Amino acid sequence: MREESMSESQINLRETHIVGSHTHEQIVGKQACQALSLHRIGLVGMSQARPPFRFERPRPFNSQLLLCLEGWGMILVDGEWQRCPPGTAYLTPPGVAHAYRAVEERPWSVCWVAYDDSLEQASIGGESTRQVQVDPQPLAAVIAGLYREYIGQAEPAAMQQWAELIALYAQRIIGPERQERRLQQLWEHVNQDISHDWSNEALANQLGISSEQLRRLCLQQLGESPMKYLTLLRMRRAMALLSSDSYSVEQVAMRIGYHNAFAFSTAFKRAAGVSPSAYRDQMRKSKG
Predict the structure, then answer these.
(1) Distance CA 203, CA 114 (A)
(2) Burial level of 235, CB count in 10 A (0-12/13-18/19+)?
(3) Pairing mode, if any, of strands 64-70 and 130-133?
(4) Is-contact 67 101, C-beta < 8 A?
(5) Is residue 194 domain-shared with residue 275, that is, in the same domain?
(6) Please, where are the H alpha helices in 92-132?
(7) Per-residue pLDDT tens digits for 31-47
(8) Where is the HTH araC/xylS-type domain (predicted)?
């Protein structure tokens, strides 16, 4: 259903971020949940929005997914204001103007994922905003789960699992799957042998293409170079291994392909914000 139709040239957007005192929000950022950053997610949250809740971004730097759970609000699609009812996901790529607002006193209940990406490495592609109809409950449930963990025990291992599910369910909504099947198969193979001494050439050989072709393919499909994406996979595995006391930091490093514990610790701190030892200590304290 279209509302307040007008041409894009007639809509003069200006950078506007209004939450308002009548809107209640539950938010978790990458500073609180370091695992979100491994999926290039900056913030996730849920909002019970009432007027004057309104956001306008003429040229946003990042991608965002906004999903209506209950009630309805207005979203800008193809230069026209349209109603956003339950089950509607509003997908906005970087560099493309978007806007949304609450219009009724009855709460407009939404959940959202704000990516920490860029135009060159967009999590949501395309040259226009779009809306798709989906089941809103899976994504809403895992965002709520992460928030409850955050305000409760805040156990890093548990928060990591919630972050993985948020990234998965968000990607299903954004779909179709952005990765080519051959690229997906490559990383599945790599994940099964993550400790192997992978190089650009070795990865490219798996697909029978040149290193430059693989680099362009990964940048196009993943927004990352092959070696940077390999590092992300290794850091995710390291977080899982560090969640128990079964392996020393040196053993974790070896199991994910680092022959130097110092190099591993440096890479882990760059990705997670804390050292492997500090990450493990946080989990021990959260377990009591």
Answers:
(1) 31
(2) buried
(3) unpaired
(4) no
(5) yes
(6) none
(7) 999 889 888 899 999 99
(8) 184-282
CATH number at residue 259: 1.10.10.60
Query: What are the φ and ψ backbone dihedral angles of 22, each rounded to 5 degrees?
Result: -95, 0
Instruction: Please indicate, yes or no, whether residues 138 and 207 belong to a single structural domain of this protein.
Output: no
Domain range for 63: 8-174
Same domain, 136 and 245: no
User: Which range has the worst mean pLDDT, 6-15, 107-116, 265-274?
Assistant: 6-15
Q: From 174, 199, 223, give the residue that closes a domain.
A: 174
Residue-by-residue DSSP string for 134-146:
---HHHHHHHHHH
Residue 176 reports pLDDT greater than 90 = no
Assign 88 to helix, strand or coil.
strand
The answer to whether residues 25 and 152 belong to one domain is yes
Residue type, 258: Y
Instruction: Select the more confidently predicted residue: 23 or 181.
Output: 23
Report the domain count for the chain: 2
Residue 75: phi and psi, rounded to 5, are: -130, 150
> 149 with 32: CB under 8 angstroms?
no
Query: 211-218 long-range CB contacts below 8 Å, 24 or more apart?
Result: 217/180, 217/183, 218/183
Using alpha carbons, list the distances in angstroms from residue 265 to 163, 166, 196. Answer: 22, 26, 18
Residue 222 in any domain: the answer is yes
Element (H, E) at 89: strand 88-92
pLDDT digit string (tens) for 220-235?
777 789 999 999 999 9
Q: Give the integer Cα–Cα distance in Å for 132 and 45.
A: 19
Rounded CA gap, 90 and 134, in Å?
11
